[in-house]
Amino acid sequence: MKPDWSCLKDVKIIDVSQLLPGPHATSLLLQLGADVIKVEQPVTGDSSRLLGNGVFAQFNRGKRSIALNLKDPTDKAAFLELVRHCDAVVEGFRPGVMQRLGLGYEDLAKVNPAIVLCSISGFGQTGPYAAHAGHDLNYLAMAGYWSIPVQVEDKVARPKLRLSDYAASAYAALSLSVAIMSARQQGVGQHLDVSVHDAILSWTAHMAWLARGFEDNPVASPTVLPENDIFQTRDGRYLAMGILENKFWVMLGQVLGDDFPQLREERFAHRMSRFGRKQEVNAMLKEVFLSRTLQQWTETFSGYDLPFSPLLNASELFDDPHVQARGTVRKLPAERSISVGFPVKFSRGLPDSDVSVPALGEFDIEAFKARNRT
After folding, report:
1. Alpha helices, DSSP H only, in the chain?
2. How many helices (H) and strands (E) does the chain have?
3. Which of 47, 143, 322, 339 lies 20 to 30 A from 67 at CA?
C-alpha cells in the first residue's frame, strides 16, 4: 500500500531512456511512489535486455513497458497521449534526437504545459563536447578522476562501478522531484539538462583543484594518507584500515604495540610527523598486515573501536549480518536474483515495491487512455 503522505504517490513518469542513468533515476522515483511507464523500442526493447535478464531487471522492476517506435506517426501519437496525462519524460538520447523526432521540450509542452523533460546525456545539451560519444570511463577521465592522488603507491585502475552514471542518476532523480513539485504548483514545466560529466565533475572538482599543486610529487598531497589504505594479508586477502583521526592511530598502537612496537614510536605519534614519513609508514603497515591472515586480523580487532573492515567477497557480502539486518537487499529465490530497495529508511514507511520485471510491450495503452478519459 502506498503511504498517503508520499508526494510522489500519483506522479506518472515516462521513461524512454536505456541502460543505467535514466532507468536508475526513474527506479528511485518509483520506489518513492511514482508510477513509471517504460517506453521501449519494439522487438529489441531497452539495450540492457540484450545484456541479460538480470541486468535489465536491476533498474526496471515495477515499471510498465510499452513498445513504441517513435519514428512511426501512430506510435508517436500514442507517446504524446501518454505525455498529456503524465508529469515527466526522462530520455537519454544524444542532444538533438528528441527535437528531430518532433518530441523536444517545446513539442511536449504544447501537449502538456506542465510536463518536465529530463534529458540525460554524456556531456550535456550544450558545449563543445555535447555531440561526443562516451560512457562512464570517458566521463571519469574527462572529470579528472585519476588526477587525484590518494595512495602512497597510487594506481590507475578501472573503477568497479559506473560511478559517473550513478552520480548523474541521483542528480536527475533529485531534480525531477523538485521540478515536478514546481510544475504542479505553477502549472508550468521545464527542461532539465543533466550532464553525466557535470555530475561526476561536481564530485571530483575540489580534490582535483587541490591536486594541481602536487603533480610533480603526488605523495606530498594531503589527500594521500599512508595509514588510510587497503592492505594485503598473509592469505592473499585484503583489509581496509580507515585511519583518519589520530585517536585511531593511538588505538592501533595500543592493540598491536606489544607485537609491533614500531607502531608506538614517538616519531609516528602525530599526524604531521607521519605525513613527513608517508612511504615509511605505509611500508611498515604493509609488513604488519602481511604477517597474519584476514581471519586472524578480524579476530584481533574484534571489540576495538577501529575503522577496520575486511574486503568481503561476493558470497560474504550477502551473508553479512548487517546487510541482512538493514534489509536493503532482498533475495528473490524464485528468480535466483535480488531486488535492491531504496537505501534511505523513512520513519513513515515507503510504498511496497513491485519486484516484477515487465515484459516488453505488456502495458495496454488503450486501457490507459480510457482510464484517463473518464
Report:
1. 21-31, 53-60, 73-84, 97-100, 105-111, 136-142, 163-186, 196-211, 246-256, 271-275, 278-289, 294-301, 314-319, 321-326, 365-373
2. 15, 11
3. 339
What is the Cα–Cα distance from 165 to 362, expressed in whole angstroms?
28
Task: Please report, for residues 70, 190, 307, 316, 318, the alpha-carbon distance to residue 321 in angstroms, rounded to integers and kept in the order given.
Answer: 47, 45, 18, 10, 8
Tens of pLDDT along 92-144?
Answer: 999 999 999 999 999 999 999 999 999 999 999 999 999 999 999 999 999 99
Distance CA 83, CA 109 (A): 9
| DSSP letters for 48-80 | GGGG-HHHHHHHHTT-EEEE--TTSHHHHHHHH
Task: Give CA torsion, residues 7, 9, 13, 15, to 10 deg.
Answer: 110
> What is the structure's pLDDT at 7?
73
Which residue has 595509514 as its cell numbers? 227
Q: Which of 9-18, 71-80, 330-339 has the lowest mean pLDDT?
A: 330-339
- Cβ-based neighbour number of residue 232 at 10 Å: 14
User: How far apart, in whole angstroms, are the C-alpha atoms of residue 177 and residue 88?
Assistant: 10
Residues 284-314: b if buried by 16+ CB within 10 A, e if exposed: bbeebbeebebeebbeebeeeebebebeeee
pTM for the model stands at: 0.93
The packing angle between helices 73-84 and 365-373, to 10°, is 40
